[in-house]
User: Which sequence fits this backbone?
């Protein structure tokens, strides 16, 4: 999967959407982490709203960059997945603890695979920091496997699982935003040199 069309294709528009998305996830994660006694429905609604807003941001990001990023379809698919899962969870706030861990694990598995893909794409263009993306992607997959393996433990600790997932995804999105901003600056500088 080649994310950026060519070395001159660094003009990634709206990198700040990724930053806003990351901040949203981190704030949601902190909120969940410090309210462990809150009801399961409240956590489900908070998680659902985060997914809906995050999905919308990622869809907008993908559509605005479809000419600059050849792998924009992965961003679009991730945004649509977040949006659909968020709407489903909002429509069914009474999901039992037995079901939500599986939904969360599937979402986390998809996100982990996506993050690993982004890491290898960035490695082609950015020689540093791509290893952090790989680390967060592997960590996300390991967390998903843990929930699949022990869903009862996942259900019992859903508050903390949701909090840490939101924090991990938020941190990834914020770091990605600054990488995209850096790529955009490199592209502008390169364009100024060429057009002289």
Assistant:
């Amino acid at each position: 999967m080649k994310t950026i069309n060519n070395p001159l294709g660094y003009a990634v528009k709206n990198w700040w959407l990724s930053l806003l998305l990351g901040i949203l996830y981190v704030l949601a994660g902190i909120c969940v982490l410090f309210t462990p006694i809150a009801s399961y429905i409240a956590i489900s609604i908070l998680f659902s709203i985060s997914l809906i807003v995050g999905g919308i941001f990622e869809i907008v990001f993908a559509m605005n960059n479809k000419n600059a990023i050849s792998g924009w379809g992965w961003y679009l698919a991730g945004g649509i997945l977040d949006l659909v899962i968020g709407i489903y969870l909002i429509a069914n706030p009474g999901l039992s603890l037995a079901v939500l861990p599986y939904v969360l694990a599937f979402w986390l598995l998809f996100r982990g695979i996506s993050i690993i893909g982004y890491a290898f794409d960035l490695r082609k263009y950015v020689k540093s920091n791509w290893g952090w993306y790989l680390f967060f992607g592997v960590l996300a997959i390991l967390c998903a496997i843990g929930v699949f393996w022990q869903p009862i433990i996942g259900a019992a600790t859903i508050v903390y699982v949701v909090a840490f997932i939101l924090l991990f995804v938020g941190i990834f999105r914020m770091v990605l935003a600054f990488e995209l901003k850096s790529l955009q600056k490199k592209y502008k500088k390169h364009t100024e040199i060429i057009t002289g």
In short: The radius of gyration is 17 Å. Residues 158-195 form the longest helix (38 residues). Residues 3 and 71 are 4 Å apart (CA to CA).
